[in-house]
Write a structure and sequence with these properties.
Blueprint: E1 2-4, H1 7-12, E2 20-25, H2 31-40, E3 46-51, H3 71-80, E4 85-87, H4 117-132, E5 136-140, H5 144-157, E6 162-166, H6 186-191, H7 194-204, H8 211-224, E7 228-235, E8 251-258, E9 261-268
Parallel strand pairs: 1-4, 2-3, 2-5, 3-4, 5-6
Antiparallel strand pairs: 7-8, 8-9
Helix pairs in contact: 4-5, 7-8
């Protein structure tokens, strides 16, 4: 596997001419990331993984300094699955960039309590795409709001790039895989699967209760387990507005804190269950 650190490295090796399938990450790679990389092998071209902890998407009181940095083990994991290239730029990669203003949908869900977060996401995606010029870019659907924002931004700004979204990869106990899981204490890790269980409970009981009742009851179950809810609701999959009735394609989404660690998860509803 070849490792590149600068924009010139990419240009001088003529990587763009070969067709590139990109998996953008912030490192601390887990099975969720690796599943994205494996999926790229079903597409023509080489695979490139970017690893960059983007300071622009962290707020002043968030966990940028504590975000897991595991570059040596990340490289070993990439080599083990025969990744072609890794792009690992230096910290100054995000400096002096013109901030891209995310559309209004960015102010919902995660953006409501994280002002500027998605501006930072789109700004660094714009930079990475401009350098790598991929044919495809692959994202997990755990960060569903991020996915639809990037997909729309790419449609307008990089029309030749196809955005591919892949299902959430979970631990055996149902917890959505996330680099932030590593920040949980042992006790916090034990209660973390309750987040997914709360989503499943809503899905499985949607015939028994109204939407407000489902949200109230599921919230109470989570809070009893010392899980602090940021948001929990059922939303339209396209515009993230709250829905009044269940319909196929609706999104059950949650963001919650366990201790100091903020986790997100979601379920896309299937056809109504009896």
């Amino acid at each position: 596997m070849k490792i590149f650190e600068t924009e010139n490295d990419i240009v001088n090796n003529h990587l763009n001419a070969k067709g590139l399938n990109l998996v953008p990450t912030m490192g601390n790679l887990h099975e969720g990331h690796l599943s994205l990389i494996e999926e790229t092998k079903n597409y023509n071209g080489k695979t490139i993984v970017s690893i960059f902890i983007n300071p622009l998407q962290f707020g002043p009181n968030e966990d940028f300094k504590n975000y897991p940095r595991t570059i040596i083990s990340d490289i070993k994991k990439l080599e083990k699955i025969n990744c072609d290239y890794a792009f690992i730029p230096k910290d100054n990669f995000a400096k002096k960039l013109k901030l891209i203003k995310a559309p209004s949908i960015s102010k919902k869900l995660c953006g409501k309590n994280r002002p500027g977060h998605f501006d930072g996401v789109l700004t660094i995606i714009n930079k990475i795409f401009s350098v790598i010029l991929p044919t495809h870019a692959f994202f997990g659907l755990k960060d569903y709001q991020q996915f639809i924002l990037i997909r729309e931004f790419t449609r307008i700004s990089f029309p030749k790039v196809k955005i591919v979204g892949l299902p959430i990869i979970r631990e055996k106990d149902g917890l959505a895989m996330s680099s932030r899981n590593n920040l949980l204490t042992k006790d916090e890790r034990k209660i973390a699967p309750n987040i997914y269980e709360g989503l499943l409970w809503i899905e499985n009981n949607r015939k028994r209760f109204t939407i407000p009742e489902l949200i109230k009851l599921s919230s109470e179950k989570l809070e009893k387990n010392n899980i602090q809810i940021d948001y929990l609701g059922i939303f339209d999959k396209k515009n993230l507005t709250k829905v009044k009735n269940f319909e196929e394609g609706a999104l059950i989404a949650v963001a919650a804190k366990i201790g100091k660690v903020r986790l997100i998860d979601n379920i896309i509803l299937n056809k109504s269950k009896d």
